[in-house]
Amino acid sequence: MSDLLKRPFGAHGKVHQITPESAGWRYVGFDLWRIREGEKISDRTGSDEVILVMVEGKAEIAGAGRDWGELGERMNVFEKTPPHCLYLPNGSDWSAIATTDCTIAVCKAPGSGGHGARRIGPDGITLTKRGEGSNARYINNIAMENEDYCDSLLVTEVFTPAGNWSSYPSHRHDEDDYPRITYLEETYYHRLNPADGFGIQRVYTDDLQLNETMAVHDGDVVCVPRGHHPCGAPHGFEMYYLNVMAGPLRKWRFVAAPPVEHLM
C-alpha cells in the first residue's frame, strides 16, 4: 500500500491522526473522530490553529473559554448541506460531547494568534458548482483564501458526482514562488456513496519520480506532499472529500500539468 494512503485505525474513537512528523512535512495535521452519543472528547490546540468540522452528526462544543452550543445538522455527509464548523486559535482547549453519533474532523496548521475563535457555517457557505461535463463537482468552501478566518489553514469540502473527475485538470502547488505558485501540503479525507464503493486518486510529479495511483475507500485519507493529485469517482459511486491545505503563505496558487494545461 502506498505510504500516501492512510486507512482508518478502526471504526470508533480517533480513527485518523496525521501529524507533520508522520507525514514527513511541515504544516498540515489532520485528526478524525467517530464517537457515539453521550461520549466526550477533548484536546488542546497547542501551537496549531484548528478548524473543527462536523462532518456528520451533532455535538455540544466548548473551546477557547466559551460554550458554543450544539453544532451539526446533517446526519449523512451526502445530504450536501453546509457544514457546521468552529475555528480555534493556537493556545486553546476544546471539548465535544456527542448529542448523536457523530464524525468530527480536526484540521490543523501552525497558528500565530492572528484570528479569534469563531463559528464558520452553515450561514455563508453555499454549495457551488465548479467545472463542466464530466469534470463538474460541487464545493462547500469552509475557509479558503477569500475567507479571512485563519492564519494558515485552507479548508474546503468537495462532492464529485459518480462518473466524474475532481482536482482536475491535474495541478500542483509545491513551490514557494508566489504569485506564480504557492507551497501547500494537502490531505484528502474521502467518503463514498454507497459506502462499499471506491474511488481513484493519483499523486504524481512531472518527472514521475513520484507516481502513485491509489484505490480509495470510504474513510481513507490521502496525503499530497507534492505533485499533481487528480481523483475520479467511478460510475455508480459518488465521492466526497474534505481538503486541508497549509504552507508558508495562505494563498492558493497552482500550476497545471503540461498535458492538460489547455483544459484550464
Keywords, separated by commas or semicolons:
25 strands; Jelly Rolls; six-stranded antiparallel sheet; mainly beta; seven-stranded antiparallel sheet; 1 helix; 264 residues; globular
Characterization of the model:
This protein has 264 residues and is mainly beta. It has one domain: Sandwich (Jelly Rolls), CATH 2.60.120.10. The chain contains one helix and 25 strands. It has one helix at residues 20-23, and strands spanning 5-6, 13-18, 29-35, 40-44, 48-56, 59-63, 66-71, 84-88, 93-98, 102-110, 118-120, 128-130, 137-143, 154-160, 165-166, 171-172, 174-177, 181-183, 185-193, 199-204, 211-216, 221-224, 231-232, 238-246, 255-256. The strands form six sheets. It has a seven-stranded antiparallel sheet with strand order 1-22-19-24-14-13-12, with no helix packed on it. Strands 2-3-10-5-8-11 form a six-stranded antiparallel sheet. A four-stranded antiparallel sheet has the order 4-9-6-7, with no helix packed on it. The mean pLDDT is 97.
Spans of 5+ residues with little confidence (pLDDT < 50)? none
Helical fraction: under 10%
Number of separate structural domains:
1
- So, CATH architecture? Sandwich
N-to-C SSE string, H for helix and E for strand = EEHEEEEEEEEEEEEEEEEEEEEEEE
Protein name: Myo-inositol catabolism IolB region
Keywords: Isomerase
GO biological process, one term: inositol catabolic process
GO molecular function, one term: glucuronate isomerase activity
